[in-house]
Design a protein that fits this description.
Blueprint lengths: L4 H27 L7 H13 L8 H36 L11 H14 L7 H20 L7 H25 L2 H11 L8 H20 L1 H7 L3 H6 L4 H23 L5 H13 L3 H25 L7 H19 L1 H4 L2
Helix pairs in contact: 1-13, 3-8, 3-11, 3-12, 3-13, 4-5, 4-6, 4-7, 4-11, 5-6, 5-11, 8-11, 8-13, 12-13, 12-14, 13-14
Length: 343
């Protein structure tokens, strides 16, 4: 794909503006909430945490609400938005299908089963998050192995395998719900709605290396994603091995998805919607679509999570907010850009 230098410069400026918007959104999210914290207090708390400069105007409650609860939650929302959007872009590029999203290969159903098992049989598993992560990876691995044949992994077979495996794990989740106690059933249901209320600094330390590494690898290899979008024959004629790079992208996207759902539950629409929005803004070149999609995903999830914890006194699971806001937004994008999407 050929772009002149002026067009590339404009795209880079647009990405810089999006990053600025992300910073503004993060700052707003840190100040918003039932317990208001001013920018001045945020600065003083950060000075204390990083440089040991204690200000007597900062109360213990200010410190706990900002540093222990709100700051890791906002950062976790940013990371998960990054991860789901980048994973959705990779999947859509590999499968050459704009309707593909990060949960297409059964990752969400596998994670839900793992979480349900971790909740009901908590004495046998390290934690709900670890169990969800393991079964999410296992579901995608099973889908991939079922679809594989001597000639490779046909895209249609892979998607069908994902649907089948997802249905099986969903049936297992229903079975566990049936035999679980009322408190366990409530916890399973609440987890499946998606939420960032349990975000901690430990989650950031654990998730950030995987998410950032996976995102940057997808971004670095995004020019190969451009070639894969041309079709297997054209990609092979241009010197790359389609099956090998499809496998690499699927592994990276699955890792990002599994890390995300293991800690926050199932948060829908982001991985489907943000790659669409990025392509409509930047064109088809994945070198720009990947970072723009990731930034848009982070912006969207931070805003949705802020709404989830500020709309009412009782917190709303963020998965509900992303679904309610996401469906009309995607419908608007599809209806207002019919010509571009039909090309």
């Amino acid at each position: 794909m050929i772009f002149n230098s002026a067009a590339i410069k404009q795209k880079k400026i647009f990405i810089a503006l999006l990053l600025l918007m992300l910073i503004v959104c993060i700052v707003y999210a840190l100040t918003a909430g039932n317990y208001a914290i001013s920018l001045k207090k945020i600065g003083e708390i950060l000075l204390f945490k990083f440089f040991g400069r204690k200000n007597t105007a900062i109360t213990k409650m200010d410190e706990i609400v900002f540093w222990t609860i709100r700051f890791p939650r906002v950062l976790n929302a940013m990371l998960i938005g990054f991860a789901l959007s980048a994973a959705g872009t990779a999947y859509q590029g590999c499968f050459r299908n704009p309707l593909v999203e990060p949960f297409i290969l059964g990752a969400s159903s596998g994670a839900a089963f793992g979480a349900a098992v971790g909740i009901v049989f908590n004495t046998f598993f390290l934690s709900v998050s670890v169990s969800a992560f393991i079964f999410s990876l296992a579901a995608v691995a099973i889908s991939y192995l079922l679809a594989r044949n001597k000639s490779g992994v046909p895209v249609v077979a892979l998607i069908l395998s994902g649907v089948i495996v997802g249905s099986i794990f969903s049936a297992f989740v229903s079975l566990i719900k049936y035999v679980s106690e009322d408190t366990q059933l409530r916890e399973i249901t609440f987890w499946m709605m998606g939420g960032l209320y349990y975000s901690t600094w430990s989650d950031i330390q654990l998730n950030a290396p995987f998410i950032l590494a996976g995102f940057f690898l997808i971004w670095i290899l995004s020019w190969k994603l451009n070639l894969l979008s041309l079709g297997d024959r054209d990609a092979q004629s241009l010197g790359i091995h389609p099956e090998r790079y499809k496998f690499i992208f699927i592994v990276l996207a699955t890792l990002l998805t599994s890390v995300s759902v293991s800690g926050a539950g199932i948060i829908a629409w982001i991985g489907l919607m943000m790659p669409h929005a990025a392509r409509l803004l930047m064109g088809p070149d994945n070198r720009f679509v990947v970072p723009v999609s990731a930034i848009l995903g982070a912006l969207y999830l931070i805003l949705c999570d802020t709404l989830a914890r500020t709309l009412t006194t009782a917190e709303i699971p963020v998965g509900i907010i992303t679904s309610i806001a996401g469906a009309p937004f995607l419908l608007f994008l599809l209806r207002s850009n019919r010509k571009e999407l039909s090309k």
